[in-house]
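Weekly structure sync, notes
Attendees: PL, DS, HV (note-taker this week)

Item 1: HTH-type transcriptional regulator FrlR
DS walked through the input record. Source organism listed as Mediterraneibacter gnavus. Sequence as pasted into the shared doc:
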Amino acid sequence: MIKLNSAIPLYQQVAEDLKNRIEQGEFCSGQSIPSEAKLCEQYEVSRITIRNAIAELVEQEILVKYQGKGVFVRTPKISSSLTTFKGFTYFCQENHIKTYTKILENKVVSANAVMTKKLELKDGEKLVYLKRLRHVNDRPVMIEHVYLPYSKYGFLSKIDMENCSLYEKITEKTGLQIEDNCYTSIMLETNITTEEEIVLMGLSEPNAVFVLTETVYLNTGNPLHITKQVLLGDYFKFFMSNKGNQLSMNWKKM
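Item 1 (cont.): predicted structure, written out as C-alpha cells:
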C-alpha cells in the first residue's frame, strides 16, 4: 500500500490510494471519508501527511471540505448547455443521476406586467406557480420558480406534482412533446444565497449560486413558461456552443 522507501512522497501515495478506493466504490459520491485520525491509523502515517493528501484531492476536485462537517467525495458537477434545451429531470435520467423533487408551493397567482408581456397574456390573466426544491443524490441543489399560463395549464395546480417531471405531466395531459420542440431565451447571473435559500438548501453559511432565468417557447413561437432557477455553484457548470446557434452577450453595468 504505502512504500516508505519510495521516491514518491508519502502524501501522494496516500492520495493515490484514496483516489483508487473512491473509484472502486468504497466511498460514494456525497459520502464522507474517514476522519484524519482514522486515516492515520489505516495508513500508519502522520496527520500532516493525511492533511496534505486530502488537500491534493481537494485540488483535483475529487474531495470537498465542509467546515465543521468533514471531508466528502465531491459530487460531479452537472454540466448543462445553454444552447441545447433539455429539462432537468430528462438530463439527470440520461446521465444516471439520482434526483428528487419536493414541491414547496403549487398555487394560482396573478400575472404581473412583465410576465403578462413575456407570456403574451391578456391583462388580469392568472398563472400556475410552482416552487420546487430539486435534489441530486439526496442533496438539495436547486430552488426553482415556474410560472405557466393558467388558461392552458391550470390542471397542474390540481394534481400532485411531488417528484414528478413537469414536462411529462404536460405531455400526458395535452399531448405536447416538449423536450425536442422548444427553444429558450436565457439570462445567467451569479449571486449569493438569501437567508431563505440557505435554510431551504440546508447550508450553514451563504454560498455562491447561479441564477438562471429563462422564457421557454414552443417551436410555434408560443411562450410555454417562465422559470427562475437558483443553483448551487458547487454542483453546476454551463457551457455554450455557437454551432448552429446565434448567441448574444450583454454586459451588466455595475
